[in-house]
Amino acid sequence: MDYSLAWLSYRRLPFYEEKEYFQKLYVQGEDGITSSAVYEICRGAEEILGIRTEIVRLPVSVGNEKSEVKEGIYLFLDSNGPSGGGYRIFEEKGVIWITAAEPEGLLYGSFELIRQVQRERTLKGLELLRIPENPLRMLNHWDNLDGSIERGYSGKSFFFRDNEVLVGKRTEDYARLAASVGINGVVINNVNVTERATKLITCEYAISLKRMGEVFSKYGIRLYLSLNFAAPIELGGLATADPEAMEVREWWQAQMKETFRNIPSLGGFLVKADSEGRPGPFTYDRTQAQGANMLAEAVKPYGGIIIWRCFVYNCTQDWRDQKTDRARSAYDYFMPLDGDFHENVILQIKNGPMDFQVREPVSPLFGALSKTNQILEVQIAQEYTGQQKHVCYLIPQFKEILGFHTRCREEGDTVADIISGRCFSRRNCGMAAVANTGSDSNWTGHDLAAANWYGFGRLAFEPSLSAEDIAREWCECTFGTNAQVVHAVCKILMMSWPAYEKYTSPLGIGWMVNPNNHYGPSVDGYEYDRWGTYHRADHLGIGVERGKAGTGFAQTYLEPNASIYEEAETCPEELLLFFHYIPYTYMLKSGKTLIQHIYDSHFEGVEDVEKIIGLWEGLRELVPGEIFDRVKLRMEHQLESSLEWRDQINSYFYRKSFIADEKGRTIY
Ligand code: GCU
Hints:
The chain is of the alpha/beta class. 34% of the residues lie in helices and 12% in strands.
């Protein structure tokens, strides 16, 4: 095997004292998912404890008769048990029960049990009740049919190569890893659907996609595809893709009939329309709702859903135009349509109004939309946050987003409340992450980036977990329970996002990256580009005025957030330059001027990277040599890159402002 199993690469624990439970596994039901649960327990027991578990098949009635119960583990489907993928695990008199209303719960409970063993926890007296908060917990892969991955930083696609769909051992191991953290939906192809990828919905790919769907189903994962809105033209030879044209509607209906017949386990489609050159309903003067609903009707007979992305904006904004604001666009396009979407349409909204920057406010659509199904889209592929060359653990960022009070109600108004469906009583909702995996032997390029994959799944399942708890879990499963390792790795992870923020673009301004590849500093790269992502720095100050005097974006938030963002004095400082143009001499709450803050934070960011390297150095003998070296190499590169960021940003602002660093450090 030319790849590892990441956090499922089990280490032998010869001294684990509670092996006995694993001698026998009692199970009812023989469906695919329950069989996977059985397989996972047996595999964990064998690889970690060296035990060959005996599987005892039970008739459905057993389990209620406690007298019949023998020592061991029971996988027990109980219609009164936790549902929606939830499970209960408890230990009583030498018996471990995993109970759930559906097989998915048994599978998640089995992975949890193995995790407890990996983490060397005692199973005696164990009592856990877990119910996933978000109905949909999805990964979006931006994989292309030629095997490349858009914004992929860990090798090639393991779903596609040379226009073929790959289904094999790796597909299965991927499904195991994803399911182990509770992922239940996967979109395998890029949202930018062009050329051959348009054909994924046709017979040409039916056999392999059907097989892939089956592999996923055994692990409780539904297969989804991204589709091309212009398919009626490109595949069907029609003259139009107008969602209101009868021939277009009929074409989609016929095509969906065929597609769902070919791939019965298909969950539905993800659609990027009218965005960055992709076709969509705007071409025909139709709304986003008309486009989405037309597709929703075509997939409805098969229980399919349409996940429609809100990443719709004008990417050719002129620099002289101070009113048009990319940040506003999703809100402006979608807010008036609240309530117009069919029940099987879900709007997928990026966490911020721009594009996965290291710091952005939460999209104002959260809280504003009250009659529409919603998915929160985050990105664990670190497109703008170091591209899996820099360590940047993003779970703390996601925690902040989920905890944001939208003020749509007095209580229960956070993003987590909305996307779980609690706030507006909705079923079709959840969380999606742009995936960070590829064919690299460790799946994620940077070994520590696996914490983002693991963490996303765990957080989507259980948003109340803390970022530290998730880091610790991942670390113990991956590296074992050695206290020194766990302490150092968790510290590195928890320092990493703030460090990245410090040495890159300051106070929410974002975008000071090289255009196109989005890596490394280029302060004015986007300033002189056409994408409408300006920072507006001049010799007096920097920032985009988004209060009433500017683009008015602050006013898209519900009160009191609108007023808080409106004024520089009340705006959270980490977002100050996102919302306001601020003079370099402006005094921050820390007592530092803006310019001094910029200098200081850039020096600090580099120092943090040096600390991170020091912490990792201390693990030389304690983590596998191959991983140690791989990570070390990336960290050395990260240091170089952070120095480049520091020097370019500081020099830029020194030369713009003519204000010297109070501490007299070298700024070129
Ligand atoms: C970003 C990214 C693109 C991607 C787009 C999207 O702009 O750079 O590669 O296609 O987001 O989310 O659709």
